[in-house]
């Protein structure tokens, strides 16, 4: 059985019929008929992809014949050859017959062959589309169930109760606040140092809200220049800029009904701040290169590690946009301000790393946990997760001990200044509290710069002599290289 497409040629003139057959029979299986009745019998018995009919035939014209083909075999691609150079007189019939190609006499062999190739390809594409439509219809209920299961799983994962924290952690109040505001469609600004989990809280806001069944999309505003950021968020029309070869739907439209998380919002330029303000005020977006505005229904959660109030005072951030973004403000404390959370976070990070690397261990030694709690974690939770992963990779035994910790973490535990890495400056006189805080800052900067006096002094705005004086005063001199 041939795999070539089958083409039926219908013409009452034998010479014309043979001419068409000779033109295409190298690439197609050809059937011929001298009239409409014979052609319909072939269509009923054979699998035909393309029909080519002459217009002028005795009895039934080509147009009338192809109208019948459309009714009985609608999937067959229909073509007509006519001596009319202007099809205006029969245009209504052409439309009723759903004719794919109108070819005038005299036709060129290459023109006819190309037209038949395209018709056969169109038939194949239609068939593939129909098969995909059937498969999609069958698979749709399964996909909907899987999507619903995934949503329920995410709702469980991002419950406030699942956010890792110890009893009495500063996060307790923050989780309570997040739970209270999650159900209200207000803009939320999440601030905090890098690595404190701002995106985690943004997802918790979304999956504890009435929008939980709709999309949650993320964009890092500091990673793209203005034109690309505008395209990512609002979309663009084809030809809007070099490389825009097709229309693109932006994240605001993709998230319609859901939540858009704008990370590093403090990095956007003043020009883009104006465009974002317009969206927040009116809920309208305009894709690049388009004259039409579109309404979107999204909740915006923004995040930054900058002090936006200070950025406003410095003239780098619009005051009206700041107040629009900070309808509700959630500030996440750094990890050094909640050392009681470190053991639980380390345990969770270890569970994840074990699954990732397939290297089971039982946990941490008490000494390792103590050292980790004493450390200031300038990189916050992200740094802790990376440290745990590093320890697991280097481990040989069942428990991760302090010998696997990085040098800065070991140094913080050896300083003898246990109180310096904690929040104990909350007690004592004002002078004592200030001194403890100053000593803590000195220690943290020295550790971060691997005890390099010049770099630490430069960051703190001190001279090298001034730094040494303070280090000696707080009993840290034994940690410095001579």
TrEMBL record:
<dbReference type="InterPro" id="IPR058031">
    <property type="entry name" value="AAA_lid_NorR"/>
</dbReference>
<keyword id="KW-0067">ATP-binding</keyword>
<dbReference type="Pfam" id="PF25601">
    <property type="entry name" value="AAA_lid_14"/>
</dbReference>
<keyword id="KW-0547">Nucleotide-binding</keyword>
<keyword id="KW-0804">Transcription</keyword>
<keyword id="KW-0238">DNA-binding</keyword>
<dbReference type="Pfam" id="PF02954">
    <property type="entry name" value="HTH_8"/>
</dbReference>
<dbReference type="InterPro" id="IPR002197">
    <property type="entry name" value="HTH_Fis"/>
</dbReference>
<dbReference type="GO" id="GO:0000160">
    <property type="term" value="P:phosphorelay signal transduction system"/>
</dbReference>
<keyword id="KW-0597">Phosphoprotein</keyword>
<dbReference type="InterPro" id="IPR027417">
    <property type="entry name" value="P-loop_NTPase"/>
</dbReference>
<dbReference type="InterPro" id="IPR003593">
    <property type="entry name" value="AAA+_ATPase"/>
</dbReference>
<feature type="domain" description="Response regulatory">
    <location>
        <begin position="6"/>
        <end position="120"/>
    </location>
</feature>
<dbReference type="GO" id="GO:0043565">
    <property type="term" value="F:sequence-specific DNA binding"/>
</dbReference>
<dbReference type="GO" id="GO:0006355">
    <property type="term" value="P:regulation of DNA-templated transcription"/>
</dbReference>
<protein>
    <submittedName>
        <fullName>Sigma-54-dependent Fis family transcriptional regulator</fullName>
    </submittedName>
</protein>
<dbReference type="InterPro" id="IPR002078">
    <property type="entry name" value="Sigma_54_int"/>
</dbReference>
<dbReference type="Pfam" id="PF00072">
    <property type="entry name" value="Response_reg"/>
</dbReference>
<feature type="domain" description="Sigma-54 factor interaction">
    <location>
        <begin position="164"/>
        <end position="393"/>
    </location>
</feature>
<dbReference type="GO" id="GO:0005524">
    <property type="term" value="F:ATP binding"/>
</dbReference>
<dbReference type="InterPro" id="IPR001789">
    <property type="entry name" value="Sig_transdc_resp-reg_receiver"/>
</dbReference>
<dbReference type="InterPro" id="IPR011006">
    <property type="entry name" value="CheY-like_superfamily"/>
</dbReference>
<dbReference type="InterPro" id="IPR025662">
    <property type="entry name" value="Sigma_54_int_dom_ATP-bd_1"/>
</dbReference>
<dbReference type="InterPro" id="IPR025943">
    <property type="entry name" value="Sigma_54_int_dom_ATP-bd_2"/>
</dbReference>
<dbReference type="Pfam" id="PF00158">
    <property type="entry name" value="Sigma54_activat"/>
</dbReference>
<dbReference type="InterPro" id="IPR025944">
    <property type="entry name" value="Sigma_54_int_dom_CS"/>
</dbReference>
<keyword id="KW-0805">Transcription regulation</keyword>
<dbReference type="InterPro" id="IPR009057">
    <property type="entry name" value="Homeodomain-like_sf"/>
</dbReference>
<feature type="modified residue" description="4-aspartylphosphate">
    <location>
        <position position="54"/>
    </location>
</feature>
């Amino acid at each position: 059985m041939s795999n070539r497409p089958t083409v039926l040629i219908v013409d009452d003139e034998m010479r014309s019929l043979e001419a068409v057959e000779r033109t295409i029979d190298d690439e197609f299986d050809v059937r011929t008929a001298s009239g409409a009745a014979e052609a319909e019998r072939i269509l009923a018995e054979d699998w035909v992809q393309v029909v080519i009919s002459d217009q002028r035939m005795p009895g039934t014209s080509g147009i009338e014949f192809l109208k019948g083909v459309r009714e009985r075999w609608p999937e067959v691609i229909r073509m007509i050859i006519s001596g009319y150079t202007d099809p205006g007189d029969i245009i209504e019939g052409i439309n009723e017959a759903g004719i794919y190609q109108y070819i005038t006499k005299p036709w060129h062999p290459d023109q006819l062959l190309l037209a038949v190739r395209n018709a056969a390809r169109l038939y194949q594409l239609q068939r593939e589309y129909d098969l995909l439509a059937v498969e999609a219809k069958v698979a749709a209920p399964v996909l909907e169930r899987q999507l619903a299961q995934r949503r329920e799983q995410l709702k469980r994962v991002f419950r406030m109760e699942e956010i890792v924290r110890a009893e009495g952690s500063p996060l307790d109040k923050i989780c309570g606040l997040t739970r209270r505001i999650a159900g209200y469609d207000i803009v939320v600004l999440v601030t905090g140092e890098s690595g404190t989990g701002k995106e985690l809280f943004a997802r918790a806001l979304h999956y504890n809200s009435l929008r939980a069944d709709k999309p949650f999309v993320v964009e890092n505003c500091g990673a793209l220049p203005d034109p690309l950021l505008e395209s990512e968020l609002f979309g663009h029309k084809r030809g809007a800029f070099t490389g825009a070869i097709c229309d693109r739907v932006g994240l605001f439209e993709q998230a319609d009904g859901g939540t858009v998380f704008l990370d590093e919002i403090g990095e956007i330029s003043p020009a883009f701040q104006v465009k974002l303000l317009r969206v927040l005020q009116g809920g309208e977006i305009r894709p690049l290169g388009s004259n039409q505005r579109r309404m979107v229904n999204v909740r915006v959660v923004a995040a930054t590690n900058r002090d936006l109030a200070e950025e406003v005072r410095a003239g780098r951030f619009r005051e009206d946009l700041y107040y629009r973004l900070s309808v509700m403000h959630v500030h996440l404390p750094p990890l050094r301000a909640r050392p009681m959370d470190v053991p639980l976070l380390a345990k969770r990070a270890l569970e994840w790393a074990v699954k990732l690397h397939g290297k089971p261990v039982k946990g941490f030694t008490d000494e390792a946990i103590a050292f980790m709690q004493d450390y200031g974690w300038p990189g916050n939770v992200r740094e802790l997760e990376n440290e745990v992963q590093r320890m697991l990779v280097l481990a040989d035994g069942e428990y991760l001990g302090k010998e696997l910790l990085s040098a800065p973490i070991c140094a913080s535990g050896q300083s003898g200044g246990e109180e310096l890495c904690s929040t104990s400056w909350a007690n004592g006189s004002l002078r004592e509290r200030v001194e403890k805080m100053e000593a803590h800052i000195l220690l943290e900067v020295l550790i971060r710069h691997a005890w390099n006096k010049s770099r630490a002094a430069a960051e703190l705005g001190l001279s090298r002599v001034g730094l040494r004086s303070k280090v000696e005063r707080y009993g840290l001199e034994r940690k410095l290289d001579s």
